[in-house]
Amino acid sequence: MRDRWESLATLVRLTFAASPWLATTELVLVVVMAVAGPLQAYGVARMVNAVTGQGSVTAAVILFGALAVAFGGLVLSDAVRHRLEDDIELSLQRELLDLATSPPGIAHHEQPEIADRLGAAKEEFRRLKGTAGTIGSGLAVLVSTVTVLVLLAGIHPLLLLLPLLGLLRLWASAFGAREFRHAITATMQHNRRHARLAEIAAHPRHGLEVRAFGLRGLLTDRIGELFEQQNEPRWQARRKGQLLEIAARVLFGLGYGAAIVFVVWLAREGRATAGDVTMVMLLAPQTDQAAQRLSDTVRVLIALLDVASHLRWLRRYVGEQTAWEGAAQPPPVLRNGIELREVSFAYPGTQRPVVRDLNVHLPAGSTVALVGDNGAGKTTMVKLLTRLYDPGAGAILVDGADLRTIDHEAWRSRISAGFQDFVRYEYTAREAIGLGDPARLHEPAGHNDDAAYDGAIDAGDARAVIDRLPAGLDTRLGTRFGGADLSGGQWQRLALARAFLRERPLLVLLDEPAAALDPESEHALLDRFNAASAATRATGGITLLVSHRLSTVRMADLILVFDDGRLVESGDHDALMSAAGTYAELFELQASAYR
Ligand SMILES: Nc1ncnc2c1ncn2[C@@H]1O[C@H](COP(=O)(O)OP(=O)(O)OP(=O)(O)O)[C@@H](O)[C@H]1O
Which UniProt keywords apply (predicted)? Predict the structure, then answer.
C-alpha cells in the first residue's frame, strides 16, 4: 500500500515538475468544474420550485453561472491538459533515456529484470503522459461526488445509499484492473521476446538471412505463439473484471429506481418538493456517471501506478549504480600504463568467471594485441577497460589509480574505439565520423577541424569511400532515409575513421577492426594503423588490438594470448615464436594457409 502512495506521489511530482503553471491551472479548473456539474442540477431544482411558487428567481442566476463555468472551463481545461501532456511526455522521454544511459556499465541492458522494467517503462510511458488527465479526472469525481452527497443529504439521508452502490462498482473495477496488471507483469518477458522476433523479421539488415534460410513462416509462427501465450492470461483477467462490473452495474440500476420511487413518495407525503424530485432524477445519473468515470480513472490510475513504480525502481537502481561513482579525472598523459591486478570477472547473472586471475601490465605508449580462440575473453577485457563492467575481484589501475575512482565519462572521453560490431550511423559522413569525438560536433562552423577529419579518414583508410560519395563528407548515409548505400567494408572504414578522430587518447581499442575488410585493405590499414599508433604513443596512450589474424598483430609490442579466460602466454612476436607455444603454432597454421 505504501508503495502505491509513493507511486501516486511520483505521478503528482511528475506532473508538477513538467510544468508547474499548467498543472496548477488545470487543478483549479478541474475543481471549479467539478462543483459546477451538480450545481446545475441544484439550479434546475430551484427553478422548478420557482415555477411551482416554492422558490425565488435567484435559481436562474445559479443555473446560468454553473452552466457558464462548466462550458468555459471545459474548453480551457482541454487546451491546458493537451499542452501539459506534451510537456510530461517530453520530460519523461528525457528521463528514460537518461536512466538507460547513465549507469557506467551495460549490465542493466543484459539483466532480464532490469530490461523488463526498462521495456515496460518505455512501452507504457505514453500512458504516463495521461497522468495529469487521470489525476484531474479522479479529483473532479471526488469533488463532484462530495457536492452531490451534500445535495442528496439535504433531501433525505437515506439517499446517500445511492453513491454507496457506486462504490461497489468502483471496487469491481479496481479488482479487475489489478488482475489485468498482474497478468501484464507476468507476461512482460513474452512482450520483449515477441518484439525482438518482430524486429528480426522486419529489419532490412536481417532481410538476406531471413530469406536465404526461409525463416519468414517460422518467425511469424513463433510471433503468433508468443502473442497467444502473452494474451491468454490478459484476456482471462479482463473477463473476470468485466463480469464483476456487470453485476455491480445491475445493482446500481436497481438502486436508482428505488431512489426515485422513494423521493416521489416523500413528495407525496409533503416532505419533499417537486424541485427535489427533479434534482434526484438529475443527480442519480450523475452518480452513475461519476462511478463510471471513477472506475475508468481507477483502472487507468492502477496502470499508471505500476508504470510509476517501475520508474521509481529504475531511479533507485540507477542511483545505486552511480552512487559509488568516482570523481577523479584521468591523467593528462600516461606515464606508467594500465595494470590489471588479480582481475576476475563473471557476467551478471552467471557464475562462471570468463576472466580469471588476470595479472598484466600494459605499458604506457605501447601497442598491445589480444589473441585467442572464440570465447577466450578478449572482448570481455575490452569491456572491462571501458568500464562497461567492473571486475568482480581485483582491480584495474591507471597509472596506479583504481579505474573505479575515475569519473567514467571523463575516462571514456579519453578512449577511442573501433569495433567489429560497429554502429552504422545514418547521418552525414561528417557526422558519422565526428561522433568519434562528440565535442567537435558542437564546435562552431568554420572551426579549423578539417585537418583532424583528414587525419582520421586517412588513418581509417576511408579516403576512397568519401571520394566516391556525391557530396563528399556532407553526403547522407544509409538508404533508410534516402542516403547513399555503403558496403559492409565501407561502413567499417568509416567506423575506423571515427575511431581515429579523437586526439591524444589514452586508450585506443580496436576489436577486430579489420573483420569486414579484404586482406589487401587489411595490409593498407596496418601501415596507417602504425602511423596512428605513433601519435597515440606520444601521449603515453596504449593501443589495444583484438584480432584473429595473427599477421595483423605481429608488429605489436606486446602480444597477450588468452585461453578460456586465462592469460597463457605473453611477449612480442619474436619471443613468442621462439617459445614455440600456442601462439607460434597458431601463427604457423595461419601462415601456411596463405603460402
Ligand atoms: N553478455 C554476456 N553475458 C554472459 N556471458 C557472456 C556475455 N558476453 C560474453 N559472454 C561469455 O564470455 C566468454 C568470453 O566472451 P568474449 O566475448 O570476451 O570472447 P572473445 O575472446 O572476445 O571471443 P570472440 O573471439 O569470439 O569474439 C564467452 O564464453 C561468452 O559466452
Answer: ATP-binding, Membrane, Nucleotide-binding, Transmembrane, Transmembrane helix
In short, whether 353's Cβ falls inside 6 Å of ligand 1 is no
pLDDT score at 443: 62
Q: Is the CB of 378 under 6 A from ligand 1?
A: yes
**For residue 325, is pLDDT > 70?**
no
Cell triple for residue 540? 603515453
Regarding the beta carbon of 356 and ligand 1, being less than 6 Å apart is answered no
pTM (two decimals): 0.65
Q: Is there an atom of ligand 1 within 6 Å of 391 CB?
A: no
Q: How many CB atoms lie within 10 A of CB 464?
A: 11
Take residue 8 and report the three cell numbers written for it.
501516486
| Residues sharing a CB contact under 8 Å with residue 407, sequence separation 6 or more, in sequence order | 325, 326, 327, 328, 329
Task: Give the Å distance between the CA of 106 and the centre of ligand 1.
Answer: 14
Q: Which three cell numbers stand for residue 491?
A: 561502413
d(CA 70, CA 62): 12
Q: Which phi and psi (to 5°) does residue 581 adopt?
A: -105, -145
Question: What are the DSSP E strand ranges found in 78-129?
Answer: none
Instruction: Write the single-letter amino acid at 501.
Output: L
Can you state the percent helix, strand and coil of the chain, rounding each to 5?
A: 65, 10, 20
Whole-number Å distance between alpha carbons of 406 and 338: 13
- Quote the distance between the C-alpha of residue 330 and its chain's center: 30
Helix (H) or strand (E) holding 511: strand 507-511
Helix count and strand count (H, E) for the chain? 22, 10
> Residue 373 contacts by C-beta under 8 Å, 6 or more apart in sequence?
563
Residue that has been written with the C-alpha cell 513504480 in this structure: 309
How does DSSP assign 445-480, residue by residue? TT-S-HHHHHHHHHHTT-HHHHHHSTTGGG-BB-GG
The answer to whether 134 and 140 have CB atoms below 8 angstroms apart is no
First to last CA, the chain: 74
Evaluate whether 569 touches 581 at the Cβ level (below 8 Å): yes
CB-based contact 170:164 (threshold 8 Å): no
Residue 401: pLDDT band (50, 70, 90) is very high
Query: Which comes out higher in pLDDT, residue 425 or 53?
Result: 425
- What is the per-residue pLDDT for 447? 56
Residue-range domain boundaries for the chain:
2-323, 328-414+505-595, 424-503
Nearest one of 292, 285, 284, 290 to 172, comparing CA atoms: 292
CATH class of the domain at 328-414+505-595? alpha beta
Give the position, in ligand 1's atom list, of the atom nearest the Cα of 565: 14
Instruction: Report ipTM for this prediction.
Output: 0.97
Ligand 1 binding pocket mutation candidate from 114, 350, 354, 358 (most atoms within 8 A of CB) = 354
Choose which residue among 108, 109, 345, 347 to substitute to test ligand 1 binding: the one with the highest number of ligand atoms within 8 A of its C-beta. 347
**Ligand 1 proximity of 376 Cβ (cutoff 6 Å):** yes
Whether the CB-CB separation of 285 and 252 falls below 8 Å is answered with no
Establish whether residue 347 lines the binding site of ligand 1, counting it when its CB lies within 6 angstroms of any ligand atom. yes
Three-state SS for 334? coil
CATH code, 2-323: 1.20.1560.10
Rounded Cα gap, residues 455 and 519, in angstroms: 22
